[in-house]
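A.,

Following up on our hallway conversation. Structure tokens first:
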């Protein structure tokens, strides 16, 4: 255990979560509407990073509490299936432990205030910006697909692709209000 009260195992678990975050997001943020809250500057995090105090990264370690110190994954949406979410989060974290991954240094400043160049220099990536992006990440991540199992993964991806296609074919009220009078 280090001075920050996080064990090597906890840090490896975090590193696994960060490595697989794009694919995990397809399960923890399962609806088209889930991505309306994953935008910079709002309460929900959009950046794959961790911090001790700041709430802008995806993972936060609340104030040290000795043996009760924990990590918070702040990106999941309340609409997610808790069983599938637990499965993919555990698989990602355990993969980090199995491989002995190390997380990057903590980001204790507000990531939303960083420029794109500052984020790039620090290796801070973004979570998927849409359900379609998240599903593509899931399709490419064998570890998270394995957590779901072939039957669930196939059906889940199929259902989410249909959901995205139906959504894309809709004309939304904002589009009508924004463009009808102009064109």
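Then the amino acids I'd put at each of the 183 positions:
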């Amino acid at each position: 255990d280090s001075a920050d009260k996080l064990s090597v195992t906890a840090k490896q678990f975090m590193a696994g979560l960060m490595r697989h975050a794009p694919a995990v997001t397809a399960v923890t943020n399962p609806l088209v509407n889930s991505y309306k809250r994953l935008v910079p500057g709002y309460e929900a995090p959009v950046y794959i990073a961790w911090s001790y105090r700041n709430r802008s990264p995806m993972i936060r370690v609340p104030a040290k509490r000795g043996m009760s110190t924990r990590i918070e994954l702040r990106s999941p949406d309340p609409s997610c299936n808790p069983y599938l979410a637990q499965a993919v989060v555990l698989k990602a974290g355990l993969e980090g432990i199995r491989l002995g991954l190390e997380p990057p240094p903590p980001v204790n400043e507000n990531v939303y205030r960083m420029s794109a160049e500052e984020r790039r220099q620090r290796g801070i990536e973004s979570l998927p910006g849409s359900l379609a992006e998240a599903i593509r990440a899931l399709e490419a991540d064998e570890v998270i697909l394995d957590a779901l199992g072939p039957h669930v993964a196939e059906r889940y991806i199929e259902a989410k692709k249909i959901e995205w296609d139906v959504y894309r074919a809709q004309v939304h009220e904002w589009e009508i209000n924004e463009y009808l009078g102009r064109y």
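Residues 48 and 125 are 5 Å apart (CA to CA). Curious whether your intuition agrees with the design.

B.
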